[in-house]
Amino acid sequence: AVTFDTGGISLKPGEKMDEMKFDKCGGCCVLAVIRAAAALHLPLNIVAIVPSVENMPSGSSYRPGDIIRMYNGKTVEVANTDAEGRIILADSLAFGIRTYDPKAIIDVATLTGAAIIALGANVAAAISNNTSFMDKLKKASEKTGEKLWELPLYEEFHDQIKSNVADIKNIGGRQGGAITAAAFLANFVAEKPWIHLDIAGTAW
What we know:
alpha/beta
């Protein structure tokens, strides 16, 4: 839930920046899901976590090249401050696991323009570490008409986010950008069954 995203010190172009309040759509989706689950009185224990921030330049902003320590202790080289959503999402995943010990996790985020380039505006990118969990979501997708497409999380995508000065860096270059963002998040799910949904296209 990046309530407004200027890109931070890695400032976005001015054109269409007024649309960047859109970046909170992942958080809005999570709020809608938890509200619907409560209204339906589903017999499930569901926890929703929405890490809300603005990404703005300021004297206290972190900068490209900074190294930060995450909630789970891993260090991250900030190669680009406009890849901020994965940083707050990673900390919320690690916090949620430590606090609630969930059986399974789904994160939802307007994370990358790369997901739109790959799949267009009507299909969400889905990436998982658990085949049976992913199969359940695919069946739900077919029933609801909410289209998604699974992308692979091969080892070479993890290699793209290796850092020389920290455990990992927050971007892995232009190739496979939606997948390397998920590779980043995979460092914070502690081998729990997990699905990452990049809704950058479908949210709009």
